[in-house]
Design goal:
The chain contains ten helices and ten strands. By secondary structure, the chain is α/β, with parallel strands linked by helices. It folds into two domains: 171 residues, Vaccinia Virus protein VP39 (Rossmann fold); 139 residues, no CATH class. Strands 1, 2, 3, 4, 5, 6, 7 and 8 form an eight-stranded mixed sheet that branches. Strand 2, helix 2 and strand 3 form a beta-alpha-beta unit. It is globular and about 60 Å long.
């Protein structure tokens, strides 16, 4: 049976690609301007054609040619275009040059004649003066021949199986004549940080993690029912996705960062679910959710070195007050 196909715009390393793959789609093409992220996407999805360039330089015809799909029907185009400029009253927000990428998203959806689209963005797009931009975006899709889910929603990842308070605006639409998709129902319960992390070993037990971000170990504990799927255990772990060959004995994304003893003492004294008052870093609650992650750590807060600092600064502090590997492995 032929699987539906999708195209990922502004793909990054492939988070949305993975979601669509596990939902049953084959992601045949991705567009990502950052060469490092484009290379990571290619590593994660070797059968997907990656265009390492701006969407402003890409056409629907090029996507079809590079991916080798020819005249096949594209079932969905998805992605989260940056929205940076909002014009003053009396001017169209979409006419701001800083929002040209949003127009290119609409253009590529139309050029590919996709059956559906899914547009993701920050929840701020739905409030205040930004709503003017949202209304213009809906009009742009309608002018391109698409019916839009006008009862749009902001969805929280915590309601759909992720132990993180991450709210994102999701706009969906379908080519005129097709049924516009509806939003999924919330899950009855939310997984916690402990559900996701409790079986992971203590990164501070491995000196090699001072120089690398992965170590092979048999020290994993028994995962929760929730974490079993994260570790690739069970027949349903990959959903409808293509299983990868990997070694489950590796603790990955866990390079250690040395923090001063004063910093460690401050974090030890900080209750779970609270913000450490000097660094303003959030400490994960074992029975609750992570906060929304930022892209990095403000240098003025002395975040230190490396990606682990960025994750710690964004809120990934484990429940038993250690400061690195075990929490980072949530993103393996």
């Amino acid at each position: 049976m032929t699987r539906p196909i999708g195209v990922d715009l502004f793909s990054g390393a492939g988070g949305m690609s993975l979601g669509f793959e596990q939902a049953g789609f084959d992601v045949v093409a991705a567009v990502e301007i950052d060469p490092v992220h484009a290379a990571v996407h290619k590593f994660n999805f070797p059968s997907c054609s990656v265009l390492a360039k701006s969407v402003t330089e890409v056409s629907g015809a090029e996507i079809r040619s590079v991916s080798g799909i020819g005249t096949r029907k594209v079932d969905v185009v998805f992605g989260g275009a940056p929205c940076q400029g909002f014009s003053m009253i009396g001017k169209r927000a979409l006419d701001d040059p800083r929002n040209s990428l949003v127009r290119d998203f609409v253009r590529i959806v139309k050029e590919l004649d996709a059956s559906y689209f899914v547009f993701e963005n920050v929840k701020g797009l739905t409030v205040g003066r930004h709503r003017k931009f949202l209304h213009e975006l809906i009009e742009e899709f309608q002018a391109a021949g698409y019916d839009v889910q006008t009862e749009w929603r902001v969805l929280n990842a915590a309601d759909y199986g992720v132990p993180q308070d991450r709210q994102r605006f999701i706009l969906m639409g379908a080519k005129a004549g097709l049924t516009v998709p509806s939003y999924p129902e919330r899950m009855l319960s939310r997984p916690t940080c402990a559900d996701a992390l409790d079986d992971l070993p203590d990164a501070e037990a491995f000196a090699s993690l001072n120089a690398t971000d992965a170590v092979k170990t048999k020290k994993f504990g028994k995962p929760s029912a929730y974490a079993e799927a994260l570790r690739g255990f069970g027949n349903d772990a990959w959903g409808f996705g293509h299983p990868r060959i990997w070694d489950g004995d590796f603790l990955t994304s866990s390079m250690r960062t040395e923090h001063s003893e004063i910093s460690r003492q401050r974090f030890r004294a900080t209750p779970e679910g609270k913000v450490e008052p000097i660094s303003r870093f959030f400490k994960l609650p074992s029975d609750g959710l992570s906060n929304t992650l930022r892209a990095g750590t403000d240098a003025s807060r002395r975040g230190g070195r490396g990606i682990s600092d960025q994750l710690i600064g964004s809120g990934l502090l484990m429940k038993d007050r250690r400061e690195d590997g075990k929490t980072e492995a949530l993103y393996r």
